[in-house]
Design brief:
The chain crosses the membrane at residues 12-29. Belongs to the short-chain dehydrogenases/reductases (SDR) family. Keywords: Membrane, Oxidoreductase, Transmembrane, Transmembrane helix. The chain has helices spanning 2-5, 8-30, 53-64, 76-90, 105-118, 145-167, 203-222, 248-257, 265-268, 270-277, 304-317; strands at residues 44-48, 68-73, 95-99, 124-127, 171-176, 228-234, 288-290, 293-294. With 327 residues, it is an alpha/beta fold. Strand 7 (288-290) and strand 8 form a beta hairpin. The radius of gyration is 21 Å and the shape is globular. The protein binds NADP nicotinamide-adenine-dinucleotide phosphate.
């Protein structure tokens, strides 16, 4: 056969290319896709970290469905560029930018006060922003930067906006977590800000994502009967900037060998979009999703006592005030 007449190296290249193609077709075929055509006219959606990656694709979809979309971002230049791109490609103009740096509790409070003053409803809050950094680093609030950007900031933001979200019921809160929530073997409340260690490459990131899942569980339980439902999700392995702080050696391994199999940002946004628009999900509030289906979270993430304790410790660490609580 002609194939066997080719040189060994050509045969190897053809074999590898075919293998990649078959895996890509399989991954594309099994990747969850949101098929709902639900419109969101008259609804308001806030998406944190919406200037790039999964957040930007989610914002694009929400705008296309007719929602008023608020891009909550820390870099206004990048956020304005994303807004212009979304408006140009969707031809929907109800897309606005507001400054939010989750690594500053002052910024979270200022953003929330602004929303409470200027918006009369909030139907969907998507806590999407996330950061994977190399090691511990303290913010101006004395909290670990990754913990604050990925968990504490969203914890405070959600609590401050809850009154408006509940008033807009039926409403939803969606927390973008990760399969990395499985990495931690325990949640060490005495060292939640990694003051004594935290050097493992994805150690802190894994803890922050476990916090996202535990926060979802506790929030869903506190919101039972209010008409506001809460979900968390793993978007898949997605080609975005999330690994921008990874060491060069890791990038050298992942780029050629892994990224060909990663989802595009649009594919990575599907589960978030599914949770924002799919009807009849009320009975599943508190669940963890992946590829637009309920998925199993880690054993630690199901621990109700841990979720309650995390809530109490988070309240203390963000110094939540009585008038910021709406539960
Ligand atoms: N990509 C994946 O494979 C993957 C897998 C599992 C989970 N996730 C999760 O998916 C979510 C979206 O990530 P992505 O993949 O789309 O990554 P990305 O392209 O890096 O986007 C992350 C977004 O979060 C923003 N952000 C980070 N820290 C912030 C802070 N302190 N305040 C406000 N915004 C902040 C970033 O803003 P700047 O542009 O200004 O930095 C950016 O807009 C994250 O929660 C991530 O953990 C991603």
């Amino acid at each position: 056969m002609w194939l066997f007449e080719l040189s060994w190296s050509t045969q190897t290249i053809i074999f590898l290319a075919s293998l990649i193609l078959v895996i890509k077709i399989y991954l594309h075929w099994t990747c969850g896709v949101c098929t709902s055509t639900k419109r969101l006219d008259g609804k308001t959606v806030i998406i944190t970290g919406a200037n790039t990656g999964i957040g930007k694709e989610t914002a694009m979809d929400m705008a296309l469905r007719g929602a008023r979309v608020i891009l909550a971002c820390r870099n206004l230049d990048r956020a304005n560029a994303a807004r212009d791109e979304i408006i140009a490609s969707t031809r929907k103009t109800n897309v606005i930018v507001k400054h939010l740096d989750l690594a500053s509790l002052k910024s979270v409070r200022a953003f929330a006060h602004d929303i409470l003053k200027t918006e009369n409803r909030l139907d969907i809050l998507i806590n999407n922003a996330g950061l994977a950094a190399l090691g511990p680093e303290l913010t101006e609030d004395g909290l670990d930067n990754q913990m604050q950007s990925n968990h504490f900031g969203h914890f405070l933001l959600t609590n401050m906006l809850l009154g408006l979200i509940k008033k807009s019921a039926p409403s939803r809160i969606i927390n973008v977590a990760s399969e990395a929530h499985r990495f931690p073997r325990k949640l060490d409340f005495d060292n939640l800000n990694f003051k004594t260690d935290g050097k493992g490459l994805f150690k802190i990131y894994g803890v922050t994502k476990l916090c996202n899942v535990l926060f979802t569980k506790e929030l869903a339980s506190r919101l039972k009967g209010t008409g506001t439902i809460v979900f968390c999700l793993h978007p898949g392995s997605v080609k975005t900037d999330v690994g921008r702080n990874c060491p060069l050696w890791l990038k050298c391994i992942t780029w050629p060998f892994c990224t060909p199999f990663f989802k595009s940002a649009k594919e990575g946004a599907q589960t978030t979009i599914y949770l924002a628009v799919t009807e009849n999900l009320e009975g599943l509030s508190g669940s963890y999703f992946s590829d637009c289906k309920v998925a199993k979270e880690s054993k630690l993430a199901k621990d109700e006592g841990l979720a309650k304790k995390l809530w109490e410790v988070s309240e203390e660490l963000v110094k939540i005030q009585k008038d910021e609580l709406h539960l």
